[in-house]
């Protein structure tokens, strides 16, 4: 009987130490998320300005640039998956990986070959365990990405996009990341990075409106050459920041739930331990009483 | 009327925003000065100094930039740079 009590006591103790770990993770995530959201807010004006400019060129010039037209010479497409480095974030990595799998299936159904680029240790582990080939991998920054990392990823993707078909060039670049809607909602999203589909921030042209005459210095081609790689870099950086904020929010929520579950478990085990203790006392008393009765009746 | 709405943004945040009388920037083919009513333009910037004369008077602002681009559309000027540092003589900005 005493064994039962001891088992419960041990369980309470281990659950308590787990609870402390969950609580610490929750607090760490909570303290970092403010900074992550600030970074998202800081990067927004830049990416909005760049998106507007790209839309303006795409609308006001009839230049065709490799970034704007579909490539016909290859069936390869690149998919960049942005997930987290560490777990303990609930379904965060799982849902973004699921979204990627769905995209990959859709692309393959269209007869395209998918080259996977993966950021985040969890996703890298997922694919290496399944022995899938990765075209590129980056780890170790998921909760605080830097512009340098974004540049590195963007350069790899742009190189692949510019490469000729026989060197593994890709016709499209898709990005799967988690959009930070608010503290409660984070949504996995798929966007096609290149060829671009930009229409944001440009007013639709009215029938009788003369198109404003845009000047490009030095020339539309050169403006696009300078603008588009920068645009891709900015978008990737923005996506990384969104993903980081989402990861921290998901982690904070998951760890909060885990802490509460641990408290529930501790409560249940305490009750069971008390029951076992009382059962033991009752048994001892009835043993003594029945022993005394036996002596008295003899 | 006849004022420019200016936004100067860098990769890591907004640098300056407000109304101005004149903006000058190192465009690809030589320095460019922009006043209200300028034709829409989109230009690549070389490394150099971007200067803004605020509409409310006061000292002109100036930043050293290392490349970026500039867009003007119906008196809305956006200067997008990779990084900007305030040069000596310019007033400190709110951001």
Automatic annotation (TrEMBL), chain A:
The keyword Ion transport applies. Its main location: membrane. It is a peripheral membrane protein. Keywords: ATP synthesis, Cell membrane, CF(1), Hydrogen ion transport, Ion transport, Membrane, Transport. It is found in: Cell membrane; Membrane. InterPro entries: ATP_synth_F1_ATPase_gsu, ATP_synth_F1_gsu, ATP_synth_F1_gsu_CS. It comes from the Bacteria. Belongs to the ATPase gamma chain family. F-type ATPases have 2 components, CF(1) - the catalytic core - and CF(0) - the membrane proton channel. CF(1) has five subunits: alpha(3), beta(3), gamma(1), delta(1), epsilon(1). CF(0) has three main subunits: a, b and c. Produces ATP from ADP in the presence of a proton gradient across the membrane. The gamma chain is believed to be important in regulating ATPase activity and the flow of protons through the CF(0) complex. This is ATP synthase gamma chain. It comes from Cellulomonas avistercoris. The gene is atpG.
Automatic annotation (TrEMBL), chain B:
It holds the Pfam family ATP-synt_DE_N. It comes from the Bacteria. The keyword Ion transport applies. Transmembrane segments: none annotated. It is a peripheral membrane protein. CDD domains: F1-ATPase_delta. Gene3D superfamilies: F0F1 ATP synthase delta/epsilon subunit, N-terminal (2.60.15.10). Belongs to the ATPase epsilon chain family. Produces ATP from ADP in the presence of a proton gradient across the membrane. F-type ATPases have 2 components, CF(1) - the catalytic core - and CF(0) - the membrane proton channel. CF(1) has five subunits: alpha(3), beta(3), gamma(1), delta(1), epsilon(1). CF(0) has three main subunits: a, b and c. This is ATP synthase epsilon chain. It comes from Cellulomonas avistercoris. The lineage of its organism: Bacteria, Bacillati, Actinomycetota, Actinomycetes, Micrococcales.
């Amino acid at each position: 009987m005493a064994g039962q009590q001891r088992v419960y006591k041990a369980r309470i103790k281990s659950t308590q130490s787990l609870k402390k770990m969950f609580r610490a993770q929750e607090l760490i995530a909570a303290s970092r998320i403010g900074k992550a959201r600030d970074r998202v807010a800081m990067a927004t004006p830049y990416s909005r300005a760049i998106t507007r400019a790209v839309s303006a060129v795409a609308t006001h010039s009839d230049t065709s640039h490799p970034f704007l037209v579909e490539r016909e010479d290859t069936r390869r497409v690149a998919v960049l998956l942005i997930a987290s480095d560490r777990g303990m974030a609930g379904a965060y990595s799982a849902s973004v990986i699921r979204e990627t799998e769905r995209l990959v299936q859709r692309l393959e159904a269209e007869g395209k070959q998918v080259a996977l680029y993966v950021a985040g240790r969890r996703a890298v582990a997922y694919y290496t365990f399944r022995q899938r080939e990765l075209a590129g991998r980056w780890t170790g920054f998921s909760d605080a990405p830097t512009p340098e990392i974004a540049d590195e990823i963007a350069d790899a993707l742009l190189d692949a996009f510019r490469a000729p078909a026989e060197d593994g060039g890709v016709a499209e670049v898709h990005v799967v990341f988690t959009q930070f809607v608010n503290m409660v909602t984070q949504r996995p999203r798929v966007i096609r990075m290149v060829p671009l589909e930009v229409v944001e921030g440009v007013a639709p042209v009215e029938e009788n409106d003369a198109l404003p005459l845009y000047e490009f210095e030095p020339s539309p081609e050169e403006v696009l050459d300078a603008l588009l790689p920068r645009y891709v870099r900015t978008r990737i950086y923005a996506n990384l920041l969104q993903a980081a904020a989402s990861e921290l929010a998901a982690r904070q929520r998951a760890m909060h739930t885990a802490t509460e579950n641990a408290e529930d478990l501790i409560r249940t085990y305490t009750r069971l331990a008390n029951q076992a203790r009382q059962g033991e006392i009752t048994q001892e008393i009835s043993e003594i009483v029945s022993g005394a009765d036996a002596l008295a009746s003899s | 009327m006849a004022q420019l709405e200016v936004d100067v943004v860098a990769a890591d945040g907004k640098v300056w925003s407000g109304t101005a009388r004149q903006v000058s920037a190192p465009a690809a083919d030589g320095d460019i000065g922009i006043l209200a009513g300028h034709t829409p333009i989109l230009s690549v910037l070389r490394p150099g100094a971007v200067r803004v004369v605020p509409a409310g008077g006061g000292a002109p602002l100036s930043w050293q930039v290392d490349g970026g681009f500039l867009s003007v559309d119906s008196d809305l000027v956006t200067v997008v740079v990779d990084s900007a540092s305030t040069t000596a003589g310019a007033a400190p900005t709110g951001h």
